[in-house]
Specification:
Alpha/beta knot; elongated; 60s Ribosomal Protein L30, Chain: A; alpha/beta
């Protein structure tokens, strides 16, 4: 039986209460684990098959005492994937201090009650792609260290800082000093509306959109126009897709210099 958290302890990290208690989360797969080992995040344990340790050079970046050899059957028991990979990493949840001035000097995403892990992972990945340094989530939003979210970020969880924030009081204060954009269905087109290179971009729940309480503190409402050929078209865009489209338009107008 491996030391450290052990197999039962790792399996328990599927649940938020245990991730919060242990301040740990799980990442799986060669590509994702390799990215995390090269990032600011701390990988504290590896659970891999004999084949993984034989063939993979990056395993040497973790202390030998934290590298555990497990059988494929054991890996299946602790994995959240339908088809487990050769390696699973246990990582430390970062304790980044929250900066209430976020959005004054850069564009940041704000997520109001995003429930689907795939959508949250996609939005974190989009933030990474478009050079957005932070994502602020309501307490109702799915935990960013949920295994499905982590997998969907494809490593972006290591580069984008994610915070849980009580949105209404934060946005009320933020709106005094920076624009607060909200993505809604019926509003000015993002392609014609005047935008700012800094501020906060709010995206809402998959079915209900931005809550009325948060909508009340928006300073700008924007939408993505439909170009459908007939009335029987899609009712709306998936929030992950919409977020990426909006981020792309902000970045098209205000490119970042490398």
């Amino acid at each position: 039986m491996p030391r450290g958290l052990g197999l039962k302890g790792v399996a328990a990290l599927r649940l938020k209460k245990f991730r919060t208690l242990q301040k740990r989360f799980v990442a799986e797969g060669l590509t994702l684990v390799s990215e995390l080992l090269d990032s600011r995040l701390k990988v504290v344990e590896l659970y891999g098959t004999q084949e993984f340790y034989r063939d993979c050079p990056f395993a040497s970046r973790v202390p030998v005492s934290a590298c555990h050899v497990v059988a494929e059957s054991q890996l299946r028991k602790i994995s959240s994937l339908s088809e487990p990979n050769e390696v699973l990493a246990v990582c430390e949840i970062p304790s980044d201090p929250f900066d209430p001035s976020l959005g004054k000097e850069e564009l940041c995403l704000v997520l109001d009650d995003i429930r689907d892990p795939g959508n949250l992972g996609t939005l974190i990945r989009a933030a990474d792609w478009f050079g957005i340094p932070a994502v602020l989530c309501s307490p109702e939003t799915v935990d960013c260290y949920n295994p499905k979210v982590v997998q969907a970020t494809m490593g972006s969880i290591a580069r984008v800082r994610v915070f849980t924030v009580d949105l209404v009081p934060f946005l009320e204060e933020a709106a005094l000093t920076r624009p607060v954009y909200g993505a809604v269905l019926r509003a000015a087109s993002v392609y014609t509306e005047e935008l700012s290179p800094t501020g906060l971009l709010v995206l809402g729940n998959e079915s209900r959109g931005i809550s009325p309480e948060v909508q009340a503190v928006l300073t700008h409402r924007i939408s993505i126009p439909s170009y459908a050929r007939n009335a029987a078209s899609a009712e709306s865009l998936n929030v992950g897709v919409a977020g990426a489209v909006l981020c792309a338009e902000f970045r098209r107008r205000f490119p970042l210099t490398r």
